[in-house]
Design brief:
The protein is 66% helix and 0% strand. It starts with a helix and ends with a helix. The chain folds into 2 domains: 34 residues; 268 residues, no CATH class. It is elongated and about 90 Å long. It is mainly alpha-helical.
Length: 327
């Protein structure tokens, strides 16, 4: 036997089973980054078609704020505030995939649950703000008659379920509700006596208190601070994006409110306003690739807890702002 052959015989030969084991281990090591990379690429491609982050006010809101100032007539201000309430709902209705909560189960958009929950938050907040506007700001006094357009919008159209596909569809009902608000806004701008807008100092305070109250902002906060044992892992992202939809509406309304009434800032609320809007922007741009639920001192992120922290900060800042108006 030659020296070379003798040396080869001394080297342990890998069995077929060993080779397969090594290949499986290598595949297992590589599959996670490859799968993660593929998912990241697909998801980022989707976000180019249907945005999931909203760092800035949309063009409609920017144009609205440019067209209406603190020097505008009360009717113009009321119309602008009403428009800010319906703006986010219109954006969802006119988005690439439209109102997707009620899509049929055979439609791929039915499975886009993040946007569906964002839309659920949007209609909830639109409904709540319309209720307050109609029963408090669109009247000279508590006992005055409610505006017919606003009453129809809040009681009939926006109160309709969000997942009806037909007879009638949710979209058709919400479109009719938006049309009622537009009719009211037009009457306000035209000086029609049937359309009233009356924003007093106590109304400013009451609106802020309403937003952070039990019926409104406490509702999503309650979902975010539930104990982990009461929230299935599959529902964590639902609560996060539901909160995002609510925040998008509130951000539009408060941006308009502060813009039209600068005396709010003059009464000592400037820092609170800046921080509140910064925290709102954090929620409106929150879109992790994978929503995680880190427990206690886990190394994983607790995304639900992070959104709760933003929301609590927003509530506290708005509360301070309301108190500065009241004093």
């Amino acid at each position: 036997m030659s020296d070379t052959a003798e040396k080869r015989s001394l080297i342990p030969q890998m069995t077929k089973f060993g080779k397969y084991t090594v290949l499986i281990l290598l595949a297992f090591i590589l599959i996670w980054p490859l799968t993660g990379g593929f998912y990241w690429a697909v998801y980022r491609g989707y976000t180019l078609i249907d945005p999931t982050r909203f760092p800035n006010l949309d063009p409609n809101m920017k144009a609205l704020l440019q067209a209406t100032t603190s020097e505008s007539e009360p009717g113009q201000k009321g119309a602008a505030l009403s428009e800010s309430i319906r703006n986010r709902l219109e954006q969802e209705m006119n988005s690439v995939f439209g109102w997707s909560i009620n899509d049929l189960i055979i439609s791929p958009t039915r499975w886009l649950d993040n946007r569906a929950n964002r839309q659920r938050g949007t209609i909830f907040a639109t409904r709540m703000m319309t209720n307050f506007f109609s029963t408090n700001l669109a009247k000279y006094g508590k006992v005055d008659k409610e505006n017919t357009n606003l009453k129809e919008a809040r009681e009939k159209y926006f109160a309709f379920t969000s997942d009806s596909w037909w007879f009638p569809s949710s979209e058709s009902m919400y479109e009719d509700g938006i049309a009622e608000l537009i009719e009211y806004e037009t009457a306000l701008r035209d000086g029609n006596s049937d359309a009233v807008f009356n924003m007093r100092t106590d109304d400013m305070h009451n609106m802020l208190e309403f937003i952070i109250g039990k019926e409104f902002m406490d509702e999503p906060l309650g979902l975010l601070v539930q104990s982990d044992e009461n929230v299935p892992y599959t529902e964590i992202d639902d609560h996060i994006y539901y909160t995002q939809g609510i925040t998008l509406v509130v951000r539009d309304v408060l941006r308009t409110f502060v813009h039209l009434y600068p005396e709010i800032e003059e009464k000592g609320g400037k820092e609170n306003i800046l921080i509140a809007f910064k925290e709102m922007d954090e929620i409106c741009t929150f879109d992790p690739l994978i929503v995680l639920r880190g427990k206690h001192d886990s190394i994983m992120a607790d995304h639900r807890g992070k959104i709760a922290r933003y929301l609590i900060s927003i509530r506290e800042r708005i509360n301070d702002l309301a108190q500065s108006i009241k004093s």
